[in-house]
Amino acid sequence: MATEQLRCAVRVARGDLVHVRGEWREVCAVRLDRYATGGMAVVLTFAGGGRPLRVPADRPVTVSAPEPPRRPGWTFVEDASDSPAVHETECTTCGEGPEPAASQDIAVRHLWCAEHAARTGHTGFLALRVGLLRAVAVGGVGHGRDECGGG
To answer: Is residue 133 over pLDDT 80?
Structure first.
């Protein structure tokens, strides 16, 4: 069983497990109601039938805290085997950039930016580095097709 937490009754949702009279019950419906005195009540209906539970909206109820999300069984590493990373640089004012055939050396691109700024007065530049990633299985995750049909 997951850990327990106290939650205000008004925050209980369909599908939550609530501890009622010594047992865990799954909530299948939640609705707001009013007491004759004017206070707000929450009416919880449970899966499997039984009497609904009516509690003051601000009363804490014990709810099973959800399981923490499972960490994916994959890590990602840079993949330089297919092609090296590509560097792109352009001025955010006029869109001009160094020639595509220019060196991928970042220092050369920075020099182009400095010369462009001195020539035009433009001082904003977009610098992108686009590289490939490779997914690597971690902790016994299979290498078969994924849930989306990919390979």
So the answer is: yes
- Whole-number Å distance between alpha carbons of 89 and 146: 36
Terminal Cα-to-Cα distance of the chain (whole angstroms): 35
Task: Tell which residue, 18, 90, 7, 91, has the closest CA to residue 52.
Answer: 18
Q: How much is the pTM? A: 0.45
Summarize pLDDT for 67-124 with one digit per residue, the tens.
666 666 888 888 877 677 778 889 999 999 887 766 567 788 888 899 999 999 999 9
Helix, strand, coil shares, percent, the chain, to 5 = 10, 40, 50
> What distances in angstroms separate CA 75 from CA 67, 140, 149, one per listed residue?
22, 12, 19
Q: Is 130:86 a contact under the CB 8 Å cutoff?
A: yes
Q: What is the largest CA-CA distance in the chain?
A: 80
Check: CB of residue 27 under 8 Å from CB of residue 45: yes
